[in-house]
Specification:
The chain is about 30% helix and about 30% strand. It has about 270 residues and is an alpha/beta fold.
Length: about 270
Amino acid sequence: MSKKTAFEVKNISFYYGRNRALDDLSLAIEQGGFYGVVGPNGCGKTTLLDILVRNKTPGSGTIKFLGMDMGGYTRRRLAKEISLVPQDFYINFAFTAHEIVLMGRHPYIPRFSSPSSRDLELVAEIMEKMEIDGFNDRHITELSGGERQRVIFARALAQDTPVLILDEGTSSMDIRHTITTLDMVAHGVKKRGKTVIATFHDINMAAAYCDRLIFMRSGRVIFEGDTDEVLNEKNIRDIFEVDSRIYFDRYSNSKQVIFRKVGAGEGKDI
């Protein structure tokens, strides 16, 4: 049984002034998969995700979500379908961690109404799973970078959407919280049919969790496919311009990439 298409992106381009961030990019994302987006700095990964959540509008091309043009969705309806963990989250107001997570329920709360008991129960459950219930009443401005990121991640989970988009969503977390959070996300894909699209700098984390990988360079998708097929030494070289060795690691039950460090005296001076 074939999967339905979540996102259908055709020939989109995007510019920051005269700088082209996306260049005639086309891509199809099927429902119920864990997609990893990888590529060098400045290749357009974040811009692509911003367009998928309609934070940005492409200068040309089309993008459909569940068969309908993105422009046909109201903000509230889209917020019930797609949630985002952004790469950067700045807030100067002293909201508590609980208040931030509860913001994820706003699309479901009627105007001028209070959160329901179910809203509050879901927020409490997610904060416990993300291990942030211990600073329920602490202000977001008082938390460390990793703690803040877990709060923002919990806000996206509280939104309870079929699609979850992560822009380096665990980059500030320590390794234990990174693993437990990605385990939770992967479980949602496998057991609930969620669609996850995540950018990664850590290729080995992407290999361990993602069903499919999207390799980007210079605003374009260069390679895309099943992780086991597209994660190879040639593609790593073509995209990142580094040599690597790739092997199947039984402990992680996934392909892993190792790189050769430049020896002393061979690299550039600092």
